[in-house]
Amino acid sequence: MGVASTAPGRRIGTTTSKTRSLLVDAAEQLLLDEGYAAVTSRRVGAKAGLKPQLVHYYFRSMEDLFLEVFRRRADENLARAEAALATDETLRTLWRINADLRGAAFNIEFVALANHHKAIRAEVARYAERFRAIQLEAMARSLAGHGIAADRLPPVAALLLMTGLTQVLSLERALGVTAGHDEALAFVTDLIDRLEPPVAPT
Amino acid sequence: MGVASTAPGRRIGTTTSKTRSLLVDAAEQLLLDEGYAAVTSRRVGAKAGLKPQLVHYYFRSMEDLFLEVFRRRADENLARAEAALATDETLRTLWRINADLRGAAFNIEFVALANHHKAIRAEVARYAERFRAIQLEAMARSLAGHGIAADRLPPVAALLLMTGLTQVLSLERALGVTAGHDEALAFVTDLIDRLEPPVAPT
DNA sequence: GTCTATACTTCGATAGAC
DNA sequence: GTCTATCGAAGTATAGAC
């Protein structure tokens, strides 16, 4: 899509450049360590060991850089989820996908960013929808397989509960608040173990 | 940043000043409308119709301003939750407290901020713990009243599921993603209606 | 007690040098 | 195709005028 740039006067570096990747790496690192406000052209340049102006050579704007950082990670997450569910479409796998979700902090930053930037909001929304769709199919089939009718527990409700729980847990963990987490985790894993008995008994 | 400094040489305005409240109002508005990055002394001053330097007269740092904005809203939320549960300690009230939670966007911003600022993280954590504690007691009593044993559904697990769900829903709503929301909401309200039949039948 | 004039830093972005 | 010199705007914060 579109680097097409109906755009006017400025020259932009190739997307295959090694330097460009370094900048995206540095931006991602900064975002995770210090939040999106720390992702400035100067600091990204410094972290990458490069001149800050290079950020503006490879990206038309800071927003473009954010989008690149987001897409890279998002594509990774989607691919990982798809791969996991392709071989094993179970509740346990779904739970693992949600619980292991790398960088919940990452998501928080982008949701916060999405409030401000229209283009980022659109991208995050698109990702959220795709991620949901991938999981929803698996959830529906899993529940049906366990004889749980959709009118008793709608698959999308189960999925939203699962997603919500894992997000709250990781969000609180980042704050240093973990009271009750073990109990909540045990509740879910017990539930899954009952529906899908583990192969190796403890 | 870390201007820690129990500080020396600068004069700070009184906390009862009308001007001060105007600045906090403006900051809160900006935070909700455009995200925390938009909360700068210049923009806060402009929104309040005042000189930007006044922000630094009434607050030792921008972090102090953020803390003030957060506390004001947090205290309001805690008081509202306490009041609601004092008169009516039911699942339905708990659900309402979570679902109605004003400004989920607000929470997002502060959680994102908490990643960066230690003082803010501490304050947000303290708030999260108090909010949880207030609800947990009510949840435990409600479940017990409905004959649901704590070893079958630990109250804290129920609460985390509830909180997680409402947070994910409002977060997604902010993104413009609402697929499945109605089903999830219906699932929970039906569940509550079954345990606590509504007084006025539809 | 309240506010302003001012200092200095860092920001995103571009035009032009290699 | 790649990078740098440089600009004007915006950031936080302080010292000092009312």
Describe this structure in words.
The structure is a homodimer of 202-residue chains. Chain A has 202 residues and is mainly alpha-helical. In chain A, 71% of the residues lie in helices and 0% in strands. Chain A contains 9 helices and no strands. In chain A, α1 packs across α4 and α4 runs parallel beside α7. The longest helix of chain A is centred in the middle third of the chain and has 28 residues. Chain A is elongated, with a radius of gyration of 20 Å. The termini of chain A are far apart. In chain A, 34% of the residues are buried. The interface between A and B is large, with 49 and 49 residues. The structure holds a DNA duplex (18 and 18 nucleotides).
Concise description?
The structure is a homodimer of 202-residue chains. Chain A is an all-alpha fold and 202 residues long.
Helix-strand layout with pairing:
The structure is a homodimer of 202-residue chains.
Chain A (H helix, E strand, L loop, with lengths): L17 H17 L6 H8 L4 H6 L3 H26 L3 H10 L3 H13 L1 H28 L9 H21 L5 H15 L7
Chain B binds a DNA duplex (18 and 18 nucleotides) through α2 and α3.
Q: Average pLDDT value of chain A? A: 92
What is the share of helical residues of chain A? over 70%
Strand content of chain A: under 5%
In oligomeric terms, what are we looking at?
homodimer
Q: List low-confidence stretches of chain A.
A: 1-7
Radius of gyration of chain A: 20 Å
Shape estimate of chain A: elongated
Biggest interface, and residues per chain?
A-B, 49 and 49 residues
State the end-to-end CA separation of chain A: 51 Å
Query: Helical region count of chain A?
Result: 9
Largest sheet of chain A: none
Element pattern of chain A in H and E: HHHHHHHHH
Sheet/helix structural class of chain A: mainly alpha
Let me know the number of strands of chain A.
0
